[in-house]
Amino acid sequence: MRADAVRNLETILSTAARLLAADPGASMVKIAAEAGVDRRTVYRQFESRETLLAAVYAARYDAVEVAFENARLSEAPVAVALHRYAEGIIIATRQWPVAFDQMTGDPTTAVRREQLGDRLDAFIRRAIDEGLFRADLPDGWIEALLRQVIKVAADDMPHLEAAQAADLAVATILNGVGQS
Fold it and tell me: What superfamily in CATH does domain 57-175 come from?
């Protein structure tokens, strides 16, 4: 692919992610206009809106997989891995703001979603076993809380750099918000 075609593809995908996060019904024409390319350029790359959506979802999952790899969830000390995970997911979420719940209808990403969920579950079990997280909480509670706190850090704290947002998210997960 030529360099300009690669730039166009990246621009189309990132614009689509941003617009679809704000309006899941955003049209291909609107995405093309916002990306600064002709709609024919979009249709040359993506034969349908569903194909474009699948590519956006794939790009989001690619970024999330990089975050998982960089966190080294099964090798790094759990506190370090937790912070790396939070920072990586914040970066991925900000870069690809299309929500995971928008991706549930895409069958091509279902396997990836399940695999990532399994890896996160294994990390949480490891963190419990090593004493970082409490063992007395209901199943799924830690994962749900972790996802929500990181989502808030990514979406609602744009003025914070990713590392600062991760610091805040991890401190909140580990220490709560109450006075001790």
Answer: Tetracycline Repressor, domain 2 (1.10.357.10)
